[in-house]
Amino acid sequence: MNIQIDKVPFSRFGSYFAVTKTKEGTILLRDVHGGDEAPSTLFEMRFFKEQKEVKVKIEASERELKFYQEEKTEDAVKLILPTEHHVLLKAEGLTVGLFAKKVKYDTFHALSEDTYEYHIYPKERKLLFTRREGILQVDAPWEIIGNPHVTLLLSDGELLVESYVTVPGEGFSGTYEEGLSAVQEDFRVFKREPIGLQEKYRPSFKLASYITWSSVVAPFGALKHPAMFMSKLYMYSIWSWDNCFNALALAKERPELSYGQFEIFFDHQDSSGAYPDFVHDKYASFNCIKPPIFPVFYEKCMKENAYFAHRSRLEKAYESMKRNLAYYDTYRTFPGALPHYRHGNDSGWDNSSVFHVGMPVESPDLQAHLVRAYDAMARLAHALKKDEEEREYQEKAKIHAKKTLERLYDEEEGFFARVGIQGEPVKNRDSLLLSMSLLLSRYLPEPVLKKTVERLLSFETPYGFATEHPKSPLYKYNGYWQGPIWAPVTFLLVDALYEAGYEHDADRIRNKFMDLTLVGGMAENFDPFTGEGLVDTSFTWTSSVCLLFLRGEGLCR
Hints:
- GO terms for molecular function: Glc3Man9GlcNAc2 oligosaccharide glucosidase activity.
- There is one protein chain.
- The chain has 557 residues and is an alpha+beta fold.
- It contains 13 helices and 26 strands.
- Strands 1, 2, 3, 4, 5, 6, 7, 8, 9, 10, 11 and 12 form a twelve-stranded antiparallel β-sheet that branches. Strands 15-16-17 form a three-stranded antiparallel β-sheet, with helices on one face. It has a three-stranded antiparallel β-sheet with strand order 18-21-22.
């Protein structure tokens, strides 16, 4: 593989270490503990030949980083992550400098002639540097309470770096080549090539596989299970509703890892029934409450692997999801109204034009997610032989779908949203968010279904569905949820088109998305006309949707 570390971090399964290059060309060794609000840069990496700083070319694969001078490829610095806790640097002909990005109380000191400990105060972690061979020059003078600066220069040798909280672990005693082989094998076992993979999409498959593999971090702190972060570039946390797409992509071959993506939110569920907005190793945040899609995706995982149907696992998931659905009736519904959002981020469509008038908002997408969740819960209740609860969920789905049509649909213009405690209709109907009502297809009369599909298809662009109608005055280039294409929305709508019987349209949009990944990679979102990858260029729900589409998994076909 050829990975561009200015777009996709170099990392590995389980590791909190990542290496990236900024737009300005600065190469950074980073640590993603503490979530995306915490500083992540540990060191700036610079390179020298005969004491003069030189620019380097970068070769990055899934197993190794190599920095070299263009005219002298044999002079190089190589880097691997032999375990989730270690970085191993090997300098041959070039000198690599590590320049710490430190704060006041960070401290660096020698423990022996060849070992040094670096206490990184904001991270509440320590790094152990061990010179294995070669020349290591250290410049870390002491000044009252710490070091004003820390610089390490490695020449013609190896430097092992270990991350820990209190004391080092067992360490890594293998050779560089053994570490290289171990990483390669770990990725090989993780990657599962779809049967009949088109050669055209092989680059997308490889990149998606690498991002899903390398974005996982080991259990630590608030994370009791391995967690697939949304990214190790910017959004290094696991987010609710994002996690469901990742869990589904893992379900068939990695069911234990997949179940853990649900379980992290079960672990942190609030007494009200709400799931956290996101979780990382430090804490869980409840700032916003994402759409209730867990039951639908859990059921999809069950169809991919019987692991999820095991009585104890299913029971745990069912009881947790039951409390989560009750949250909407208890805390998010006004008398005579439908459940609502209180923040754009509640929906996952943060700045959608539906929310420009104010809050709270009753939106068709939330109602569709609830109805589908009730349907899924009825089937899960049936599997658990909870007959009364099965009937209750079936009835809730029917009643809720009927109320949605009565309150959020008119024959003239289709679905719309309501805002405020009085439930005033939102005039703007140019957000694709309203077309998520297609997820209600089994409850929609044929004329309503046809009209809903026609409206949805009017959002189609060369690469798929724009999130704001291209003719809308609010459409923006790189407008986040006001134009760009998003992988999870694409998956949900393709799935809904299949379920509604519009297979030809579903196939076309699915193929457009796959072509999009060849242009824009696995970005957080994409320009719908050029395919350019936007915002975070290494995002796991995009890589997961890519893998699901390539494998044909998780879809109502």
